[in-house]
Every structure is written in structure tokens, then in C-alpha cells.
Design a protein that fits this description.
The complex is a heterodimer of chains A (315) and B (312). Chain A has 315 residues and is an all-alpha fold. Chain A has one domain. Chain A contains 14 helices and four strands. In chain A, the strands form two sheets. In chain A, strands 1-4 form a two-stranded antiparallel sheet. In chain A, helix 3 packs across helix 13 and helix 9 packs across helix 11. The longest helix of chain A has 27 residues. Chain A is globular, with a radius of gyration of 20 Å. The relative contact order of chain A is 0.20. In chain B, strands 2-1-3-4-5-11 form a six-stranded parallel beta sheet, with helices on both faces. A six-stranded mixed beta sheet of chain B has the order 7-6-8-9-10-12, with helices on both faces. Chain B has 312 residues and is α/β, with parallel strands linked by helices. Chain B folds into two domains: 142 residues, Response regulator (Rossmann fold, 3-Layer(aba) Sandwich), CATH 3.40.50; 132 residues, Response regulator (Rossmann fold), CATH 3.40.50. In chain B, helix 6 packs parallel to helix 7. Chain B has eleven helices and twelve strands. The N terminus of chain B is likely disordered. The chains are: A mainly alpha (315), B alpha/beta (312).
Amino acid sequence: MKLPPVIARHARQFGTFAVFVVLCAVISVLTPHFFTVTNLLNVAQQTVINALIAVGLTYVIISGGIDLSVGSILAFAGVVMAHALRLGWPVPLAILAGVGVGAGCGLVNGLLISYGRLPPFIATLGMMSVARGGALLATDGRPVSGFGESFRWLATGEIAGVPVPVLIMVLVYAAAHLVLQRTKFGRYTYAIGGNEEASLLSGVPVRLYKTGIYVVGGGLAALGAVLLTARLNSAQPIAGINYELDAIAATVIGGTSLMGGQGSVIGTLIGALIMGVLRNGLNLLGVSSFIQQVVIGVVIIAAVLLDTFFKQSKR
Amino acid sequence: MKKLLPLVAAAAVLAGCGKKAETTAGAPATPGKPVVALVVKTLNHPFFIDMQRGAEEAAKAAGVELIVQAAEREIDVERQMQIIENLIQRKVNALVVAPSGSREIVPVVVKANQAGIPVLVVDTRVDAPALQAAGGKTATFIGSDNYEGGKLAGEFMLQKMGGQARIAILEGIPGHETGDQRLRGFRDALKGSPGMVVVASQPANWERDQGYNVFQNILQAHPDVNAMFAANDLMALGALEAIAAAGKTGQITVIGFDALEEARAAVKKGTMAGTVAQDPAQMGRVGVEWAARVLKGETPPADIAVPIQFVK
């Protein structure tokens, strides 16, 4: 049987989407508390932080890299912004400071990788520790908490019934999708991940763009920090530990190849939603947290198996 | 068809979990039986496993259904928030919560208030000013004070060392309030005793292997250390191995916190001087008992103390 071209081109995303739909259907059958408007908005809000980190990571992974430092960057950016807010800075300026710190950490990552020729794994492993230490230094190890209503609105507010964080997530994903598909930055991201040598020879300023990709990754992790801090009304220097692994999982479930050159942000969004729905559903069902970890692991493996099966059958 | 295999597998796993949940952990088997959820910090620490055991006993006695949930990592405040949000969606009748973060828990307490679900707090206090500022309320606090425990440890060390000691401290994960309070209590007990000198205070992140390594390093830098306080027993037990490896067993007074089985055994053997015992099973028991009583319309006292002991 031949698939229609549109579906064939996006078959991988359809596969991920199918997993998502089946998952929702199964949970809906098992518990009446899942498929309600309030719970679905609940899931969406719980997915936001992971989704924001993962979208930046998707760029990094498509370019053939990896970023292990995003969880630590989230903590560092969060506490810097929190300090600024406590000092009475206007909200937009404090957010800018936080996102600036995140992008700055990303810049250092990018420079080390592009110009210092460090493997991304090593450079970001180092940054993971540096940014965590920075967050602890900046706070003396204590959480920074208690912010004004105008800042908390980022987590608690609604526009036309949709929670603000969910709106921000949708906007970021729309922008990230357009940039990846329609701009030079996006095309070069794929090209560098597909074949860095060939990109260089065909005149792509590889170093510049690679650096830019890590800046985007750091900045988006910091945006995650903004929303996490508003949600908890507190910025913790120990926030975000292991979040990089959740984000990598969402990206991989969404069909982005760790080899680089392939992937999509829409897939990542579905991947993040799959993880959110799984955790929510397992909570609603009262499944023990040990079994939850097993199930999440099984789903990650199953999703990547699906990918492999698909690639083999295409050949 | 081959392509669908993982899909089917995932669905089957989920369906399997659902069924299991209904019979063991989950949904009310008896209609009308109230559901109490106990949300602890993690279930991979003996402390919270004991708390779960106490809660299960009380649930059986009080005739309520009990759900126990926790984040994978003790410090994951956001994940704990998600779990509680999900339990609110599931419409449990009462929540018994051991907060992973005393301020970070506040927004979700407010959500539970809005849903009309009473929140009973165990083990770690909710930050009172933050709760008040957010307009939230909790039914009661059931626990013992980490600060008092640290103070007990400090007072014991002061007495045991006769006011003269070179002390090393193993801290928990920086920024973790339980550890901060224990250390503050410990240090406050030593105030006014100039002979009690803290020569090193380093984090070993609650972990046994890090307790070993960090204490080994401390011994390199300060061979004259003759007393040690660890903010939990796992780190103290790790340090005991480092002490043994350095051939100093018996020369260093080691005090831990939590009174784990192994630590109690070490105290009996004399390799450890003492450890602070909280009673997590009692916290779980009292938490669920009071949750059941609150559902019957009773009002608990604002503060229910669970006794703390020093095991020596």
C-alpha cells in the first residue's frame, strides 16, 4: 500500500501522534478523571517547563550536538531573575536578566564547542557543574521566594480561559517551528547536523550558527526558569536537576535523531505531552511511583523502536 | 502491522498498570469509602517507607482508602506539585503531605483549598508567612523539629567531648531545608563554648559514598579532627568507613541523624556515638488518623508533636 505523499513525508510525526492518541484513549477508559477540561489544562501546564527546555534541545540535537547543562542553566537563570525581582526591578527587566544569564551560559557552551573544538558532551557537562555552582553561590544555597502578583500572573493568569504558560508554550513552539522550517537558521541547523564537513565546504558559517544554536538552547531553558519560578513562587538553586534527561527523552520520543540532521519541534511537543499525560494518568490511577518509572522507560524505548522499525521499512 | 507493535505494547503495559492499581494501590474499591492521599518526598528512603507503613496501618484501622505517591527525587518540588495537582483532579477526600519545599508547596496548597480538600502537613513545615501571603490554610502540622534534633545532637557532643573538640560537619544537599535546620540547631547548641571548634563543614549531598569521600578529604586536611556530625546517617555511615580506612576507628566521635537500622547497630557496637531518632511511622499514622477525623468534621490542634529522641 502506498501512503499519500503528505502523510509519507510526516509519517514519523503521525506515528508519535498515534502513540499519544492511543495513550489518551487508554487512560480515558481507565479513569473518568482524565478527560476533563480542567485535567487536560492541568496536563498542559505540567508539560510547559519540560516542553520549553526540550524545544531548545531539539535545535541542539538536530545540529548533531547535545546539551547536558540546561537543567543547571534553568536554576542559575531562575535565581538571578528572582534576586532581581526581590531587589525591586521591573518584571520585564528581571526576566530579561534571567534569560540573558541563560543565553550567556549558552554562548559560553557554543564558543567552547565551535571555537574551542570541545565535544558538546564535555563542554556542556562542564557548564552543568559551573551553572549549578553559580546558582548555589548566588543564593548561598537557599531558595529565593515571594514575588508580586504581576510576576505570578505568568503562572496563574488566564487569557480567554487558557492558562498563560500554555499560551507561551504554544507561541514558542509556533515560532520555533517556523524558524526551523522557513529560515536560513533552520536550514543550516539541519545541514550542520546532517553533515558538518559538507556544510562547511558549501560555505555555511558553521561556527557562528553552532554557537547561535546553543545560545537559543540556554535562552529557552531560562524561559523555562521564568515560568517555573512563577509557578512555585520560588527560585531554587537546586531546581532542574535531571531536567536535561526529561528534555532529551521528550525530544527522542518526538522522533529527533540523536545522530543529528533529523527531527522536528512538533514531534518534540508531542513527545513532551506524552510524558506529561503518562505521569498525570499514572497519578490519577494511583500507580506506585516505582512502576511509573518503569512505564516511562518502556515508553521511551517503544517510541524509539517505532522510529527504527519505520526507517527499516522505508528502505 | 510490525510498525504497530510498540504501540500495542505500550497500551498493554498501561492497561496492565491500571488493573493493578485498582486492586492494590488505587481507586476506591468500596464505593463511599473516603480516599486519603499521602504524598511524601520520595519512596527510596527508609524514613518515608516507615512513614508509609504507619499510614497504611492507620488507614486500615480508620477504614479509609490510602494512596501513597512521591516524586522520584526528594528535591523535585515541581514534580511533587504535579502529583498533588493530579490527586486534586482525582478528587481525593484529604491530602497528607510531606512538603519537598516549605515555600514551593504553597501554591498547590491553595489549589487544594479551592477544591475543598483538607491538607494535613507532616514532617516538614509549610512556611507560615508564605502561606499567609497566599491566603492558604492547612489543617495541622504533625512532626518533630529538625532544629531541635540538631540541637540535641550538639548538646550531646558538647557533653561527651567535655567542651573541647575539633569538629567536622557533613552537610546535606545545599539549599535543602531539612539539612539547614539540623545544622542550625547543632551550631546553636555549640554557641558559647569556644572550645568546640568547627574546622570543616562540607556537603556530602545526603549520600553514603560521598560521605566516605568527603570525610576522607577532610581527614587529609585536618588530621586533628576528633568529632563529627553528619546531617543524616547515610553520610555518617560512609564516614565511618573512611575512619576505618584511616585506622582511626574509635578515635572520632561520630553523631548522625535519622536512627536508621544500620546506624543503631553502629551505636550499639560503639563505632558511632549516637544518632537522632525521629518517628516517621508515627507521623504517617497520626497523619492518616487525623485525616479520617477531619473528614468526620473534627478540628485537629494546629500543631501535633511527634517525640524526638537521642539514641546513644
